Amino acid sequence: MKILFIESYPQVVFGQQRTMLRLLNEAEDAGHDCVVMCTAEGEYTKLLRESGYKVLVCEYPKALASYGGAIYRYKGWARFKCYYQGLMYVLSTFKRIRELKVDVMYCNDMRGLLTSGVAARMLGVPVVIWDKLDKPHGWFDWLQLPLVTRNIVICYAVASKYPRWQKSLFNHKIERVFEGVDFSTFDRYQSLRNDLPADSDSIYMAIVGTITRRKGHHRVFDALPKVQAEIPNLHLLVIGEVSGNSEDDEYKDDLKLKSNERVHYLGFRNDVGDLMKSIDILLVPSLNEGTPLVINEAMAASVPVVGSRAGGIPEVVVDGETGYLFDGDDTQQLAKCIIELSKDCQLRQKMGTEGRRRAELKFNRSVQMKRVVEILEGAKK
After folding, report:
1. Within 10 A of 263 (CB to CB), how many other CB atoms are there?
2. CB atoms within 10 A of CB 1
3. What is the pTM (predicted TM-score) of this model?
4. Are the C-beta atoms of residues 27 and 3 closer than 8 Å to each other?
5. Domains of the chain
6. What stretch of H or E contains 284?
7. Angle, CA 303 vertex, CA 315 and CA 287 arms, to 5°
8. Three-state secondary structure readout of 92-128
9. What is the number of helices (H) and of strands (E) in the chain?
């Protein structure tokens, strides 16, 4: 079977892109012919080519190319221009997809579905999406379930943005498949604790991911004064980078990463697995979220997680067993969770052990990816 994979954000290599790369590996191992269509040149297109995959670049026009959710907030002339350029893009990709003669299309995000996915459906090609974000896209969410052949959600919280009547009518299209960890690879990672900025006997907590308001870094910074006053040897690692969006640049500047000597900005890293084995607590303070891969990776590394009650995080983190959950902007509650874990090494170990057990049982990458490939195969039938 020939599968066309669509990636709308090839400028970066974050969780979404890494997940699709793992899916590509699984699909090729199953004997399928995989082609990737990206909307720009970037770090991800480079990585795909280095990994031996066939890559086509079909560039988005300017109005469609902005990173993140700003595109869904266009108004007036900007919205009209976006719609017009989107229509022209659909027509141009229609020709490319027809020439490729693919059997099924996999869209890695909503924007890919609303552009290349529309072109594919015009050609009668089945379309599958793995929806990973619970943040609504406005009226665009009304198009998703009618458009796709199969709709995978990374957690049930993601499905909350679809209209209720559609969830009833198209329930047969929806299936939950969690993200997973490749334990055979993950268990080979090594701790970098001795190479981290503070002393090895320090307590390290970390935020891992794109530096953007949606990820909630500011919540942790609001809680820091209380936390650091009680735990003098506690250090925060900020692992990740901005997307290149000007809004994210401003957000990063507002965090004042370098104004606190116990906050260490590590930037984008390719050794996240090693870093997971180096920390004591993972923080996931997101405002909107599906189920971040980093949670699974922390659990695989036997590290407890402190996460917000957003999106699918409560579907993965068991409050009081594999970590703690806190409510939204309640930074006092967040601080209390961090302090309690920081003061009790045995509690961290107990929660970490339980997290590892849960990850092995529920979040095995090989099992999860095989299920997605099966769904792609079934969409063709």
Report:
1. 19
2. 16
3. 0.81
4. yes
5. 2-180+364-380 (3.40.50.2000), 183-362 (3.40.50.2000)
6. strand 281-284
7. 45
8. HHHHHHHHHCCCEEEECCHHHHHHHHHHHHHCCCCEE
9. 16, 13
Per-residue pLDDT of the chain (381 residues; tens, 9 = 90+): 999 999 999 988 877 898 899 999 999 999 999 999 999 999 999 999 999 999 999 999 988 887 666 777 788 888 888 889 999 999 999 999 999 999 999 999 999 999 999 999 999 999 999 998 887 878 888 999 999 999 999 999 999 889 999 999 999 999 999 988 989 889 999 999 999 998 878 999 999 999 999 999 999 999 999 999 999 999 999 999 987 778 888 999 999 887 889 999 999 898 999 999 999 999 999 998 888 889 999 999 999 999 999 999 999 999 999 999 999 889 999 999 999 999 999 999 999 999 999 999 999 999 999 999 999 999 987
Are 238 and 265 a contacting pair, CB within 8 Å?
Answer: yes
Question: Which residues neighbour 195 within 8 Å (Cβ) at sequence distance 6 or greater?
Answer: none
Tokens of 46: 């480079």
Q: Tokens representing 17?
A: 């892109």
For 150-219, the DSSP string reads EEEESSGGGGGGS-HHHHHHTGGGEEE----B-HHHHTT----GGGSSS-TTSEEEEEES--SGGGTHHH
> Residue 126 and residue 234: Cα distance in Å, rounded?
51
**Token match 């090729």: residue?**
28
Q: List residues bridging with 128 in a β-sheet.
A: 106, 150
The encoded tokens of residue 342 equal 């920081």
